[in-house]
Amino acid sequence: MSNTRQADATSRWRALIVFAAIVVLFLLEGTTRNALFSGSWNTALAILNMGLISAVMALGVNMQWGYAGLFNAGVVGFLALGALGPVLVSTAPVQGAWAAGGPRVILALVVGFGTLVLAAQVWKRAGRGWRIPALIATLVVGFVAYRWLFDPAVMAIEANNSASAGNIGGFGLPVLLSWPVGALLAAGAAWGVGKVALGLRSDYLAIATLGIGEIIVAVMRNEEWLARGVKNMSGIPRPVPYELDLQNDPGFVAKAAAWGLDAATASGIWVKLLYAGLFGVVLLVLILLAELALKSPWGRMMRAIRDNETAASAMGKNVTGRHLQIFIIGSAVIGLAGAMMVTLDGLVSPGGFNPLRYTFLIWVMVIVGGSGNNWGAVLGAILVWFLWIKAEVWGPALMHLITAPLPEGGLRSQLLGGAPHMRFIAMGLVLLLVLRFAPRGLVPEK
Amino acid sequence: MDVLNALVALSNFVIIPAAAYGAQLALGALGVTLIYGILRFSNFAHGDTMAFGTALVILVTWGLQALGISLGPLPVALLALPIGIALCSVFVLGTDRAVYRFYRRKRSEPIILVMASVGVMFIMNGLTRLVIGVDEIRFDDGARFLVTVQQFKAWTGLTEGLALRVSQVLTLVITALACWALFRFLNRSRAGKAMRAYSDNEDLALLSGIDPERIVRLTWIIATALAVTAGTLYGLDKSFKAFNYFQILLPIFAASIVGGLGNPLGAVAGGFIVAFSEVAVTYPWKKVAGYLGIQSDGLLQLLSTEYKFAVSFVILIVVLLFRPTGLFRGKSV
């Protein structure tokens, strides 16, 4: 008994220490200006905002990995689907796009999905000898019908004002409404993958999610009718005021002056603070829900399944069913983070959806923070994000120091040129070291 | 109806490129499947091992070229390949010693080893970026074509041309040699038999006095040699770009699962199945169909090339749904 109490006490301290370290790092970034820190509150808050979004992603991954031991290697895909939420719900409608081919695209998608459902039914119902021919016939007919409906409609939509739009457009609804939609889109995809790959060996889910992640990113890059593909979708509305409006508001300028700041800096800081507040509220609500769930009988069941699947299934728990449930919930949280991210950026740029950055870096955050512990995942996410951003500056600085004795020339410039890539090596090392020497992370599960 | 021209077009655009690509995937999948058979985890760092090894080969190639060495019609990279393999093997054995051995001794869950391989992937990715950068690099020298379109047209008098690139022929020849050597090694040699025994049943192999560390070292060296060869051939055939090697991971996994994880013969078959489906589905069939007397307004392309990874994915899903152990009965699920 005393052992457990001891463990509780230390882990509570650990969370506080990590939290204090993060606070100190952000204070340094905001106030001191030297080789290591920028001394700008605008930069510090920008890092914090993306850190909070990373924390939401880490919460989602932690649900899948920490609660259930599921390896999702396609985080970037669920994130990209979440990013679709604001595009489809909140951007302004595009003149003439819906008339050009909207209903036909919807019909094509319904036919495509219907074909898959029908194929599954054919496979279940058809007699033994007829199964395979019937399945192939269904798929071929469905595919031809889908392409016949889909292609002309997409051509028409993309031809509509293709220089500045060429996409289907949104409904112009408030952007906060689009966040749950992003979560729902990601949850839908997770249901599909989970149905297929759960219940097999644990590596298979990893490989299948790796695949779905790459496919979703490919869709985002190429389907210009959806979100303009690599042409990027800008102009996603904001839930907070624009800097320019604040700078033109005499009341705000006067207030900024009272704080001793010029209007440009003050407006940047104020907008970022509003975002930070918004994201912070979402994060706290999610943590609260996650903690409540984890302490409920459902949470105990999840952990029991994670720790011993055989025993749990012998107790009559539906292991695959529970896994599917947690996989969908976790992916929905990742999708929510995706919607939050494009709201912060005001921009969807599918060219930037890189699996190393958006899948495996999130994994490093969860493992470093402490898998299975929500606070750990959140603190780990903010800390690792801070280090990831700063490593881009610190890497070359370190390289300058190391290569100082070398003569000017090929090797030195090669090393200096490659120095920003050192953060990949650093992250790999951090992941391996934590996995080896502190497998429970900075803030271990209780 | 012009069957001859249709056949030539088919070979030029589908059969030859798919065969070369399939051979490259097969070599990669052999590595994945061997590591799975012996070490029992899916190595996510395999793509980046290919990239890192190829980067080393390119560096050695540049060094040799600077010394004025040339192989005539063949690319100098062939000469650099053994050196690249040796250097990359040393690094990979280092990762085994520093990372994987600990979890192997502890008999950790496979998923922990997968996670560790993600860490190794990060490191190798960073090293590749550090030594060679992220730009596209062409490092093929020597002759580019064995048969050019003009030559072929002049010889045969057909309207459709056929090009045979040196890199494609090299890929097929080297893959055939590598597979022959590997299967001979696995079936005939003492060490190869020990490897198969270890893959079948670890404990029994230990009881018969097989040294597991030796088997593991051997596996890493063979898998690295295959990976670096595959990566170099892929780079010669297309071009070297570090990120492409991460993306090729999915077709390679698909190939090894289609064939049955842990089954080398299956990996080779799987590589060709994935490559042929990928090329066939993303090829616009309009030209071939035209020669066969079917005129069409559309391109007759089932999927645009950007979605080629979807093909691997669908194959993967179909196999997982209907035959999770793969076509050749690999390790159980």
UniProtKB/TrEMBL annotation, chain A:
Keyword Transmembrane helix listed: yes
Subcellular location: Cell membrane
CDD domains, sorted: TM_PBP1_LivM_like (cd06581)
Pfam families: BPD_transp_2
First-listed, main subcellular location of the protein, grouped into a coarse class: membrane
GO CC terms, sorted: plasma membrane
Membrane topology: Multi-pass membrane protein
Residues passing through the membrane, by range: 12-28, 40-61, 68-89, 101-120, 132-150, 170-192, 204-221, 273-294, 326-348, 360-389, 421-438
Keywords: Cell membrane, Membrane, Transmembrane, Transmembrane helix
Gene Ontology MF terms in the entry: branched-chain amino acid transmembrane transporter activity
Domain of life: Bacteria
Transmembrane as UniProt keyword: yes
PANTHER family: HIGH-AFFINITY BRANCHED-CHAIN AMINO ACID TRANSPORT PROTEIN BRAE (PTHR30482:SF10), HIGH-AFFINITY BRANCHED-CHAIN AMINO ACID TRANSPORT SYSTEM PERMEASE (PTHR30482)
Name by which UniProt lists this protein: Amino acid/amide ABC transporter membrane protein 2, HAAT family
UniProtKB/TrEMBL annotation, chain B:
High-level lineage: Bacteria, Pseudomonadati, Pseudomonadota, Alphaproteobacteria, Rhodobacterales
Location(s), subcellular: Cell membrane
Any Pfam family the entry gives: BPD_transp_2
Keyword vocabulary terms for this entry: Amino-acid transport, Cell inner membrane, Cell membrane, Membrane, Transmembrane, Transmembrane helix, Transport
Recorded GO MF terms: L-isoleucine transmembrane transporter activity; L-leucine transmembrane transporter activity; L-phenylalanine transmembrane transporter activity; L-valine transmembrane transporter activity
Membrane topology designation: Multi-pass membrane protein
Source species of the chain: Paracoccus laeviglucosivorans
This protein's name: Amino acid/amide ABC transporter membrane protein 1, HAAT family
Cell membrane recorded as keyword: yes
Broad class of the protein's primary localization: membrane
CC terms in the record's Gene Ontology section: plasma membrane
Transmembrane intervals: 6-39, 51-71, 77-99, 111-132, 162-186, 215-236, 305-322
GO biological process, one term: L-alanine transport
Family named by the database record: Belongs to the binding-protein-dependent transport system permease family. LivHM subfamily.
Coiled coil: none
